[in-house]
Amino acid sequence: IDIFKYVIYGVAAAFFVYGILLMVEGFFTTGAIRDLYGDFKITTCGRCVSAW
């Protein structure tokens, strides 16, 4: 029964981290594309996150 608890917490943590990644990636794409800073890195990261 403890295993199910760990699995549930693991899935919740994974979704939490995924949400933070999406938020940070969206923030950087809106703010940093204008400055053209790390444009290639951000687009590849966005493609990786959206494909995941």
Automatic annotation (TrEMBL):
<dbReference type="InterPro" id="IPR001614">
    <property type="entry name" value="Myelin_PLP"/>
</dbReference>
<keyword id="KW-0812">Transmembrane</keyword>
<dbReference type="Pfam" id="PF01275">
    <property type="entry name" value="Myelin_PLP"/>
</dbReference>
<keyword id="KW-0472">Membrane</keyword>
<protein>
    <recommendedName>
        <fullName>Neuronal membrane glycoprotein M6-a</fullName>
    </recommendedName>
</protein>
<keyword id="KW-1133">Transmembrane helix</keyword>
<feature type="transmembrane region" description="Helical">
    <location>
        <begin position="6"/>
        <end position="24"/>
    </location>
</feature>
<dbReference type="GO" id="GO:0043197">
    <property type="term" value="C:dendritic spine"/>
</dbReference>
<comment type="subunit">
    <text>Interacts with OPRM1. Interacts with palmitoyltransferase ZDHHC17/HIP14; the interaction leads to palmitoylation of GPM6A.</text>
</comment>
